[in-house]
Design the sequence.
């Protein structure tokens, strides 16, 4: 069956020129995807230690890096593939010498192995999925892009370090990507939200380098590489599985 095409508006989120134009217009005025640090601080602080070397992927113009700095986590490196974004953020937070900024592609990090204690992303990996139309059947291109980024994250994490991913993606869609034995980490998650009626929940995933995956998560990871179940025409009966 031919894949449906995502709306053209979705594709712009993968394009550097879209983000450069946005950041040239907005500058470094904070814009928060999935809310600010206070929404998930209790869950995040449980994973952080004073002196941690923290890497923020796809920082955008979020105040997350600065807010971490103000809480005492003063060794924070933030990257984004938009030069306009990084220039604006570097200027806005020039008074914080512990904040470092770099233009970089999350698929090809230029840091050495084991350079960070914590890698953090908030909504950045969701951009890899914006052209997908069926969350149950991810295209090989999107799955490969996700794997490439996660392999880079695993590489720059020290043994014992953790990767924290904050996203709207529900566990049955996102965990198979994270639960790959090759990355060498364990996996757990918690649902977060404000508790307001009708509010959307989002999820905080924690991957700890050097700890094993649970068998159930291993099974999820293996399922990612299996073809989706075949669909049968309405007038026929599918053979038993």
Sequence:
């Amino acid at each position: 069956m031919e894949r449906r095409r995502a709306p053209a508006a979705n594709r712009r989120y993968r394009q550097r020129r879209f983000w450069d134009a946005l950041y040239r217009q907005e500058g470094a005025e904070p814009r928060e995807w999935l809310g600010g640090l206070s929404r998930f601080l209790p869950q995040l602080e449980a994973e952080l230690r004073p002196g941690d070397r923290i890497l923020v992927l796809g920082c955008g113009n979020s105040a997350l890096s600065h807010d971490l700095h103000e809480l005492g986590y003063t060794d924070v490196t933030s990257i984004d593939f938009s030069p306009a974004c990084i220039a604006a953020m570097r200027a806005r937070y020039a008074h914080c010498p512990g904040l470092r900024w770099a233009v970089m592609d999350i698929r090809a990090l230029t840091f050495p192995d084991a350079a960070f204690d914590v890698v953090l992303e908030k909504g950045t990996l969701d951009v890899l999925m914006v052209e997908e139309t069926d969350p149950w059947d991810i295209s090989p291109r999107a799955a490969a892009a996700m794997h490439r980024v996660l392999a880079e994250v695993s590489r720059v994490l020290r043994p014992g370090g953790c990767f924290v991913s904050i996203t709207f993606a529900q566990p049955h869609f996102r965990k198979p990507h994270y639960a790959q034995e090759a990355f060498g980490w364990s996996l757990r998650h918690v649902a977060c939200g404000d508790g307001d009626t009708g509010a959307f929940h989002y999820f905080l995933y924690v991957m700890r380098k050097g700890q094993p995956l649970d068998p159930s998560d291993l099974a999820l990871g293996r399922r990612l590489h299996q073809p989706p179940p075949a669909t049968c025409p309405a007038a026929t009966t599918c053979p038993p599985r």
